[in-house]
Design goal:
The protein has one domain: RNA-binding S4 domain (Structural Genomics Hypothetical 15.5 Kd Protein In mrcA-pckA Intergenic Region, Chain A). The chain is of the alpha+beta class and 80 residues long. The N and C termini lie far apart (23 Å).
Length: 80
């Protein structure tokens, strides 16, 4: 699944265009590498998101195309 789509479906970022802008601004890393919006993500990948001066690290636990809002938190876990 594309990185920008995963960020939107998991509700880490609310809109796909905002997720795309984050990745294009080099504020998202996948497994320690700066990621493009089209970067393919899979289970077990580690995402690092920089928002302002904060860094949040997530581990992808599952990939699904359609998820209800209540189940979105089951797709990832926050490491830091």
């Amino acid at each position: 699944m594309r990185l920008d789509k995963f960020l939107k479906i998991s509700r880490i970022i609310k809109r796909r265009t905002v997720a795309k802008d984050f990745a294009e601004g080099e504020r998202v890393m996948v497994n320690g590498r700066i990621a493009k919006p089209s970067t393919d993500v899979k289970k077990g990948d580690i995402l690092t998101l920089r928002i302002g001066d904060r860094e949040t690290v997530f581990e992808i636990l599952d990939i699904k195309d359609n998820v209800k809002a209540a189940e979105a938190k089951n797709l990832y876990r926050i490491i830091e």
